[in-house]
Amino acid sequence: MLFLVFVCVSTVFWFILALNDSAQDHFNVNLRIVNQPDSVTFISDVPEKIHVAVSDKGTNLWRNGYLKKPTINIDFKEYSNDGVLKYTYNDLITSLKERFGSTALITSVSLDSLQLLYTTNAGKKVPILVNCQVYPASGSTLEGSVKASPGSVYVYGSKDVLDTINYVSTEPVTLRNIYETTEMEVKIKKIKGARAMPSKVKLIVPIEPLVMRQAMVTITPVNVPEEEELLLFPSKVPVEYYVAMSRLNDDEDNNIELVVDYADIPTSHSGKLHVQTRKFPDRLKNLKLRTDSIEYAIVKE
User: Structure pTM?
Assistant: First the structure.
């Protein structure tokens, strides 16, 4: 026990002597703008912190760097003028000396100065253009469009710049092999001379599973002379397609257009006409005809 007591005492003395030696370490120093009026919006990005290398006695580093988090308060009223807040390298070093003590040697700073643009103009509300490419997984589909929440943001800047801005867009996003509705946060693309707030929005990507549906669709003859009539056997054929689960009960039959062309009769050697799919909504996937040719008869009026 006596030996352990002496070990602890010697450790304490060693620690005190070590702290009295010169040392160097790196610190994150918070930056804070104070006395900023509510009417002011910064166009430039305001850094939250800077990285600083400081040399001093270990006791001073411990007291000023570890026991309390160093912070620099920049007075807006003192350093701002005519739309620009300027904080020079000398201002920065002076503030760091105040935080770490007059004996501290600032050996490096990640920031040499600050020059922040700001405006007192009211913001302009503009819609958001979503820049997102979606590739659903097999068996799934994008049901509807990708939407941003909120659907609009306020843009701040000079009047001349705001007059040229009618919308903002998100940073480009590509999503692959997604099989369920997805929500994600994306940034608004930066605008030269202006700032969008909020700077991030939530994207909602509606993904649904595909289910198969079958229907009987009427065939329409085209290019038939006025004095003739084309009878089809059968006049309806079965089709199958895949649709988003929420649309399974929708009546899509009238949105599918199937035709046979009277002009194909001279080239038809089988006595049948080929059924063509002229149009159908994009929301219907992998549409297939169960019968691709039908018999016909010509009736002259």
Answer: 0.72
